[in-house]
């Protein structure tokens, strides 16, 4: 086995060198170094490829698909393509539309009449395709029930049953954008009902037609089997786990690097594809039935440095995957990862910068304010700063002058030190900066800068705490759509104790009617009769109503 493994690795490198003939030796070495940077000896790794003008110019694999059996990753190793699978669910919908079996402006309830009987507004297929349906994310709903979804063997039927119990949406269909995996789980069922075939079987036929024999969705009718890149986390040692998930359409697609290169070739040269070129071209565009400008048929639209590109990325446990397409340059990049240590989007971005000749010293985003603002005093800055959705920062002073302690959900606390009159930077990473500005309204706004993302703003609103009545928050609250419940008890000051699924955590008030609890924002409602309810918001579920248990 040891000799066989080295022969496989040698063959992989020879094949990659042959296919990379259009790159200079230095370019190939540089790309190799990007892949190997986070893959130590004996570790899981990745498979990465570059297609330019219809030709493979780079194709490489490093690390192990199965550490226990000493099996290396090759271009034929199957990976979980995570949320990048959505493009193929969308392709199936477009194919059926081309065949006249459905229309993009049809209501989803033409196919799934059991859904949302109380919602009178049309919920169009195009709303689901562009994440503008308002349908809540089923994974966040499972989390509300205290379920760790990936430890279960839930099926499409389980997902449909939970969504069928929902009576409300996040927002009016078509009115705004919010990413929700439920959209593509439901589209998979639409494909099944419109085609008259199980979704997995229909997609297998489509993949065979596309020349992608090693690609397919895993589900109840088609469990995961055979050889694939096992997922590994590292907690002092590499740890893997069994994959038993059976929901698909939004993800759960297993594929190989070579199969994805075949698909990228059809995207670049649709006239040569075995399915109608018009279908492929449409799949690479924004929808023309909504005003969506950032998400089309399973892919996102954006700017990479100064270049227009389409892309998607996803993560399912230790599996991560990213694709990037630069239409004007006819350039595609695919990165597949099976290690919790490496981020596929970081690898793909580095490869893209190398292929496009972008200096690594050049920052894609602004990293500091472009103007000077008045000095701010450290003691005036503590508090809760609210961003979009459920995102917030909490700032506190420390015993050190001109220093703040920054707390963020899901991240370690970091110390911010003053850099200039209104700018603080992270003590151990000066590239991360916060710039504070006092608005005319009296609100305090901070803008966060870092080289890997566009600047974004959060605001600490002016608050009249005299309106706070602690007793209005207290008690047990229940959501009828999921059966989830939690209890709120007073702690001290503006801090409460929230007990959910047998675990108690702290919540802190941002306003008298707004409580922040881990990744949730709880909004207090009170009707004319004094009855209270709480609207819960998270990343992908909004306005989920929890009624006070003592209410009639």
Separate helix tally: 11
**Approximate shape:** globular
The structure class reads alpha+beta
Percent range for β-strand residues:
25-35%
User: How are the strands of the largest sheet arranged?
Assistant: 14-15-16-17-18-19-20-21
Low-confidence stretches: 1-21
Largest sheet: 8 strands, antiparallel
Quantity of strands, as a count: 29
| Helix fraction bin | 10-25%
Straight-line distance between termini: 69 Å
Instruction: Specify Rg, calculated over alpha carbons.
Output: 25 Å
Mean pLDDT across every amino acid position? 92
In short:
With 552 residues, this protein is α+β, with helices and mostly antiparallel strands. It is built from 11 helices and 29 strands. The protein has helices at residues 2-19, 25-36, 86-98, 125-129, 138-144, 156-164, 181-195, 199-209, 257-268, 277-283, 344-356; strands at 46-52, 55-62, 64-66, 71-72, 78-80, 216-217, 232-234, 238-240, 253-256, 300-304, 307-316, 319-326, 331-337, 383-386, 392-397, 403-408, 414-418, 423-426, 429-438, 444-450, 453-460, 475-478, 485-492, 495-500, 503-511, 514-517, 520-526, 532-537, 544-548.
